[in-house]
Amino acid sequence: MKRLNTIVIVGAKIFEVAYWLMGAVMLLSLIVSVAMPGAVSSWAIEDTAGLNIRGFMVEMADGTETVLPRALAMASLTGVLSCGLMAMVFRNIYLIFRTARGTTWFSKGQTPFQPDIIRMVREIGIFCISLPLVQLAMSVIGRLVIGTATAEISVSLDGIVMGIIVLCLSQFFAYGMQLQEDVDGLI
Predict the structure, then answer these.
(1) Fewest 10 Å CB contacts: which of 141, 160, 169, 182?
(2) Cα-flanking dihedrals φ and ψ of residue 66, to 5°?
């Protein structure tokens, strides 16, 4: 069990850092697409090329086989927000496992039933729900900015179900914490 926890802790940290790095690349792409739209529109790509960022897909060309700077900017902005939310999910997973081990400064022992863990599990649920909602909002904004004639934007709403499940799980942790406090009070 200890080995599995170590694997999860290391994996969560790796994914967190990877998502922060991807968010930084998306931010750089956003800056380039806004600051130098002429340079971006000179890039030649396949007519059917699209950019897929965590289920948010944008068609990048308008039939002339050149990149639309506005499409790249919308995809990049969505990427910054999506990668940031996913990095926070993995950050919380990392902190949950470390806190349950008792190795964080705010840990209250080696138990999963702690207020900070319950808060972090709830935050994971909120981040999971926020991800498809942000992508849906960016899809609507993208259709307005890019135009409906060239916009081929799709969004996956699977994260809402996952977020609701995680929020329900946080309620079980809250109940477990309450039971643990009651048992500790009897001893």
Answers:
(1) 182
(2) -125, 150
* CA dist list (Å): 22 to 2, 34, 39, 40, 151: 30, 18, 22, 19, 24
Residue with tokens 């022992």: 109
CB 23 within 8 Å of CB 80? yes
* Two structure tokens written together for 146: 């890019």
* 118 and 157 Cβ atoms separated by less than 8 Å: no
- Reported as a single tens digit per residue, the pLDDT across 105-164 is 777 777 777 888 899 999 999 999 999 898 888 888 877 877 765 556 667 778 899 999
Q: State how far the alpha carbon of 128 is from the alpha carbons of 86, 95, 124, 148, in Å.
A: 8, 17, 6, 28
**pLDDT one-digit tens code per residue, 58-88:** 666 556 556 677 778 888 898 899 999 999 9
Phi-psi region at 54: left, alpha or beta (left = phi > 0; alpha = psi -120 to 50): left
Helices (H), the chain: 2-35, 37-41, 69-101, 115-146, 158-186
